[in-house]
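Changelog excerpt

This revision adds worked examples to the README so contributors can see how folded entries look when concatenated. The first example is reproduced verbatim below.
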Amino acid sequence: MPKKEKKAERVSKSLTWEIEVPVKTYLAKKLPEFIGPDTLTILGLISALIIGLCFYLSTFNKFWLLGSIFFLIVHWYADSLDGTVARIRKIEREHFGYFADHMADMFTIIFIMVGLGLSPLMDIYLALIFIIVYFLTSINVYLAAYTHGIFNLSMGKIGPTEIRILTILLIIAVMPFYPGIISIVGLKIKLFNISILIAAIGIFILTLISIIKNLRYLNEIDKKKYKEITVYEYLQKSEFMNKIKNMKLGNAENNEILNFFNSFSHRRNNKSKPNT
């Protein structure tokens, strides 16, 4: 049986968060009782799979991209409401819900990015790079939630909803000249390639900064409970030092050894005393 622990505080600074919360609450209250959190989580996974499939099928007809836009909206609805419905109906399953919801997120990013990578819109290697960066970011967020009780739902002003909106705008932008190849300084570059690369680099840098901050924060907390022993402290407690102290000092060599350790101890004690 998992130990009951304090729930991580959900934090978001995204642009749409303040508008999104009341909208999600309203929509969740309007849902019929037979549609529960699990149904919405499954709907979100199916939507993600269809989004990836639509991206791939755009290889044969660019109008499949309209399907990807529609199911991005369906995915927002399902992914955003599953937790909201559980909280409003007071049927939260903290451990199951946390695990299921975030595993669904992992599969979602795989379905969508692989679908993009298999289409003419984007190169597969960039899709795989983005998946790796997303997984690294997710690991950092989940570990931070566990270790110091803060669950960040956004990276700065960008959250899942903003990413969906930007993706929809990008799809609309490339449709007139599918697969969206532009010329920069004589180089032909896919619009999705450059967009995903910039996003991956930005997310990676922000994640590294967050990891460093988390390590510093946790180190400061643990310093209060844990103290590293210095080489000198170890020697002071060691059998070697006890033997030296208990030696019968019959020659100059032994006197020099003891004087060395005593002078070292004296210097350390003076340094440790506060200035008055």
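The second example, added in the same revision:
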Amino acid sequence: MSTDIKVPVFPESVTEGTLLTWHKQPGEAVTRGELLAEIETDKVVFEVPAPADGVLADITAGVGTTVKSGEVVGRLDNSATARPAPSRTTPKPETATSVTIMPAARRLMEEHGLDARKVAGSGKGGRVLKEDVQKQIDMTILSGTQLEAQSTPGGGAPGMARIDEPVPLAVTKPKPVASTVPVVPRAKNVRAPAGERPERRVPMTRLRKRIAERLVEAQRTAAILTTFNEVNMQPVIELRTRHRERFEKEYGVRLGFMSFFVKASVEALRHFPEVNASIDGDNVVYHGFYDIGIAVGSPRGLVVPILRDADGLTMAETEAAIKDFGERAQSAQLALEDITGGTFTITNGGVFGSLMSTPILNPPQSAILGMHKIQERPVAENGRIVIRPMMYLALSYDHRLVDGREAVQFLVMIKELLEDPTRLLLEV
């Protein structure tokens, strides 16, 4: 007796996916509910569980195959017994010393032929992330370049890096950090031997292609305009410093800046409903709820999980939800419902050191708020020059729906609420 292994039923917004990896091979025993394969879509990664106990008899869709909802990708033999597993000197590609390797990291390791045991994981629970693999690749390239230079008389041939010269490394994405002043490693490139111009062609992931499509769509269909302001963060910093320890002890979560911005945004959206609205054909849809998207970086790319009914969340609940989003984004555990919808988005480029930017809309939303790096600057207060921790704010909006006056007033209200955070508590 055999049982078909089928692709999970995708939601209506997902039409197909790419088979990322098989966690079992033909001949291996599986138990009902055990993870067999992973399928990447343009939104999230879906898991394919075993439909019954048995032995994996056949795989009909290999890694990299495009599959559709409900399609058969393999077959289980319910009556067979597992073949003896071949002796292996290296761990399975999915784990290294029982540590999970994320799909994007695994693909990169396979492309470069890396041994999973040599890559140290920095993710939650020791998970191996794409950044960890890229770091190991850079170290390997650097080591090889230095050895070549050592073996060359006079320190190296023309075009070859010398030991006493700084050897550039391949570009790696800096990991997001919680500090407002993150330390970002300098991006470097390996110097190729003279006469060579190496290139590496890698297919775009479905998520990256979807991100590209949506960004181009936003710029093509919306009349995007950006207005700027700056906010003195000292009142928020003082309030946060005064209550941070007690807050963390009481609620078990760190008090960050994002919850203040979420609260301020919700209050401003109440006063300017067109900023919380969207265009649907010839109609304007005014949303009577506040679902705030929080842009989060992940090994697969940018994702925007949604804080549902943010107006009803406390500061602690907001911080806990954002922390959970960040952790699940790093381990590719966000569900489709986590990233679907949203009426307004907040993105924080400041964690990477961005001083100012013009964020792009997340269609069909009509506005997005950009936070940036907090930096001490001289400002005028009551006729005196003082040093204050300042942050530039950017509001990109769809001019088809939101007029400049409303956009500017919306941003001014956020500024005023943050510079007098007691108003957020009193809701005035």
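Reviewer comment on example two: The first helix runs from residue 103 to 112. The longest strand covers residues 384-398.
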